[in-house]
Design goal:
Strand order of the largest sheet: 3-2-1-13-10-9-16-4-5
Number of helices: 5
Radius of gyration: 18 Å
Order of helices and strands: EEEHEHEEEEEHEEHEEEEHEEE
Strand content: 25-35%
Structural class: alpha+beta
């Protein structure tokens, strides 16, 4: 299934995208898509429905923007340098264990939301990533059992301010946590429709120019490894998101000199079977943050 939410903040409606590409309204069945919706039993109940029996969700004029596909994200966990060729372009060694850091859930916005550059940003960068959405609590789980705790997958753009991340001391978090720096979606695709999360092609363009081309096949640490690893250090709850790292082609790795996002740029990105995102980059405008 492809689950999504449509509408302005505070007015989102749950929906399902059927096999024919028709949006179906889930509002009569559940008030919203929440962590409780992501349990195996709840997903099985939705899967048993005949989508054709559901009313069309919205037409283009009334749908509103695509929101984050579920409400109630507790943790936005990120993995750094998880593609060897990306580590090389960053001039950093391939990690022996996963590099784990957190973005605040407040960065999460819908797939096509504006990305707003914070005041003073000069090195904001793009990163297409596979997102893993937890469906059942995971604590000290084995790698063999890890995927049973996954509700589904989504596209993530881990937007990053490189100067703040790498040149200002301390942890990476200060360059990762700016408002709008975490577009998610457009859909949450349930795990039954992604039989092998290590076989997904991914891409990102800026202003129509190819930037990132990669595949989850080349991850240093695969999805099952990451879920099990993170569960050693924190309990993973339904609705938590793990963003699993980015392939090469980011702005800071471009030759002969790095290139970074500026107001007016457009990013388009996607992952095979998980949908596409489009974001327009804006200079600081606080009115766009909650739009």
């Amino acid at each position: 299934m492809k689950l999504l939410r449509l509408g302005r903040p505070g007015h989102e409606r749950p929906a399902l995208l059927d096999a024919d590409g028709v949006l179906r309204d889930l509002g009569a069945l559940l008030p919203d898509i929440t962590p409780a919706t992501l349990s195996p039993a709840a997903l099985a109940a939705l899967r048993a429905l005949d989508p054709r029996a559901l009313p069309p969700a919205f037409d283009a004029a009334t749908a509103g923007p695509v929101a984050v596909p579920w409400r109630g994200m507790g943790k936005f966990i990120c993995i750094g340098l998880n593609y060897a060729d990306h580590a090389a372009e960053a001039g950093l060694p391939v990690p022996k264990e996963p590099i784990v850091f957190l973005k605040p859930p407040s960065v999460a916005v819908g797939a096509d939301h504006a990305v707003v550059l914070p005041p003073g940003s000069v090195k904001s960068d793009w990163e297409v990533e596979l997102g893993v959405v937890i469906g059942t609590r995971a604590r000290q789980v084995s790698e063999a059992d890890a995927l049973a705790h996954v509700a589904g997958y989504c596209v993530v753009n881990d937007v990053s301010e490189r100067e703040w991340q790498l040149e200002r001391g301390g942890t990476w978090d200060k360059g990762k946590g700016c408002d709008t720096f975490g577009p998610v979606g457009p859909w949450l695709v349930t795990a039954d429709e992604v039989p092998d999360p290590q076989a997904l092609d991914m891409w990102l363009d800026v202003n129509g120019q190819p930037r990132q081309r990669g595949s989850t096949r080349t991850m240093v640490f695969g999805v099952a490894q990451l879920v099990a690893y993170c569960s050693r250090f924190m309990t993973l709850h339904p609705g938590d998101l793990i963003s699993t790292g980015t392939p090469p082609g980011v702005g800071m790795g471009m030759k002969p000199q790095p290139q970074y996002l500026k107001s007016g740029d457009t990013m388009r990105l996607g992952i095979l079977g998980l949908g596409e995102q489009t974001q327009r980059v804006h200079a600081w405008d606080e009115s766009l943050l909650d739009d």
